[in-house]
Amino acid sequence: DLGTEILIPVCAVIGIAFSLVQWLLVSRVKLSPEKETSANSGKNGVSESLIEEEEGLNDHNVVQKCAEIQNAISEGATSFLFTEYQYVGVFMVAFAILIFLFLGSVEGFSTKSQPCNYDSTRMCKPALATAVFSTISFVLGGFTSVISGFLGMKIATYANARTTLEARKGVGKAFITAFRSGAVMGFLLAANGLLVLYIAINIFKLYYGDDWEGLFEAITGYGLGGSSMALFGRVGGGIYTKAADVGADLVGKVERNIPEDDPRNPAVIADNVGDNVGDIAGMGSDLFGSYAESSCAALVVASISSFGINHDFTAMCYPLLISSMGILVCLLTTLFATDFCEIKAVKEIEPALKNQLIISTVLMTVGIAIVSWIALPSSFTQDVADSCRTGAATNVIFGLALGYKSVIIPIFAIAISIFVSFSFAAMYGIAMAALGMLSTIATGLAIDAYGPISDNAGGIAEMAGMSHRIRERTDALDAAGNTTAAIGKGFAIGSAALVSLALFGAFVSRAEISTVDVLTPKVFIGLIVGAMLPYWFSAMTMKSVGSAALKMVEEVRRQFNTIPGLMEGLAKPDYATCVKISTDASLKEMIPPGALVMLTPLIVGTFFGVETLSGVLAGSLVSGVQIAISASNTGGAWDNAKKYIEAGASEHARSLGPKGSEPHKASVIGDTIGDPLKDTSGPSLNILIKLMAVESLVFAPFFATHGGLLFKIF
Question: Where is this region: Disordered (predicted)?
Fold first, then answer.
């Protein structure tokens, strides 16, 4: 136990320290003009043109331009997030009050101890205490999620221009700068999430003492807070980035036939801002929410197992020990990319990123085995395992697997994981399977953040008027990031499914539901309504992107038509107006989808009861996973089709090109249709299925006591 109490915070501090070291290394690249000597003719000769050192590294004008563009992107992203957080702050306060009132009313705001739910011979803390501490943990989770997203955005905007400048020296140096910047975000998020959760548990334990059931039930608010903020970050950021992206592409590429990120395009700054608020800040909040929920799901299930009943602290902290080991493994893995193996050719970039996933997975498998051997007791029982069986969810997963061809293999993989992990340790096994997928979150997030940073670097190179060779280098970095980002989305979807199922099992136990029988009308109506919700949610987010993009297209067209000399490069476009359009539209449009997700469990649980709500959760889980995978794959396919034509790497691709040809224009339109699928609706569905499950778990005591008002009346 003493070793556990020392190891967890020490690993978290190591993660934070490592991220600061990486940040210091990135900061060595200066954004102010300096006297530099001309570079050599090349490392690998003429054959590897992208690696040749470029003459003229002391071009002060280029450095100044890069600094100005970076400042504009950073200011736009910071302004948007501050405005978004004001909206979200109002929601946090309102929902925190709601949590306190709902949970406090379970026992009429009584301050007397009550018999424990799972052991009536023992006395547990009153429901009012759960209300207070759940509210505190909700605010704590929300605040940590916001900080994770904001720090990620600041780091990305700090690094984008530095990556561009390093690209003048070679693709290897630019890769290291981009990857180190991603690592800063990855390690900060993983370490902060672990440290805050561990501190909260120890502070709450001062009050709860031996009442671990109440303690870890209150901790679930941490996951709810993190996921609530992630919902608004993902939806708001996704609408912002896709509105700007679609507007810039349709008018710039298709109508005006100008290159991507051309400084003449009025939406180009908004497009680059969107990469940071959507793909960086939104993704950071999303993955923090996944981590918090998987940890909370494992902890709350463990608290009602033999671990919690026997008060085995080390076994209870097993999920946190896995995360601690993950930080150490990811630290070692990162060094392979930045220090042990030098990138010397473009073709080495993608393998280097994929090796990060392979190395971290292999090392983490060994690490998990060691932690399991030391931390876990020889036996595990769970008295409530029978009430956690969710045959409906797993069986329907198999039944719907034939719906979309692209989801067959992932769904089988998830289903097998569910079956095997449940066989070993019931719902706790499923929760740990989810945490296992997220144990290397620092490396995964570093790879994910690397992509948008490289994308921004390419945009800055284009806007600063740098040579074609520089743009080729940044495009090579970006292309490798796109491939690994698709892998990251697969991790996010798979872990979301497992986390949701684990939370669903914990909800069934806490709501005292004996069985979830799909043949009963109460459950079945919830099942079909729940299966409909992801479609409704996707329709709302897609429509939001369309509405915002329409306004952007009209503004870009207006500027091209009314500003003399804009197409000739003699006049400067009004970037600020386009940034404002994306900001206003995303903040307005993110509210309805967010309200749908947050209000559904409250309405169903209060008026229809816990059995109907269990059906809603199972239906949304099964349907949401399918649509999320399908949306990501569909959008990614259209995106790759466009890149295939633009690259012109084969005879067939060259026959479809060049840029500006009719096939290329058609591929751009396909890409703009797929963008909101893969970057807004798809990623947001992960949060929908997780958030509804964790919200239901937090409010389960209220629903079990006062829920089902309509059925009670009639």
Answer: 653-675
**pLDDT band (50, 70, 90) for residue 192:** very high
Question: Is 366 exposed, middle or buried, given 0-12, 13-18 or 19+ CB atoms closer than 10 A?
Answer: exposed
The C-alpha atoms of residue 396 and residue 381 are separated, in whole angstroms, by 27
Q: Which whole-number Å values give the CA distances from 551 to 269, 401, 554, in the listed order?
A: 16, 38, 5
Q: Which of 612, 595, 593, 622 is nearest to 696 (CA)?
A: 612
In this predicted structure, what is the pLDDT of residue 169?
A: 87
What Å distances lie between residue 412 and 489, 493, 667, CA to CA? 17, 13, 32
DSSP SS3 for 114: strand
Q: Residue 124 phi/psi, 5° resolution?
A: -120, 165
Report pLDDT digits (tens) over 78-125.
989 999 999 899 999 999 999 999 999 888 888 888 777 666 667 778
Which residue's structure tokens are 């097993």?
318
Closest CA to 322 of 359, 291, 347: 291
Note the pTM of the prediction, 2 decimals.
0.83
Cα(90)–Cα(75) distance, rounded to whole angstroms?
Answer: 23
Please count the other Cβ atoms lying within 10 Å of the Cβ belonging to residue 358.
Answer: 11
pLDDT digit string, tens, across residues 296-322: 888 888 887 777 777 788 888 899 999
Token digits for 358?
């392979």
| % helix, strand, coil for the chain, step of 5 | 80, 0, 20
Amino acid residing at 254: V
What token pair was written down for 305? 């197992």
Q: What is the pLDDT of residue 58?
A: 53
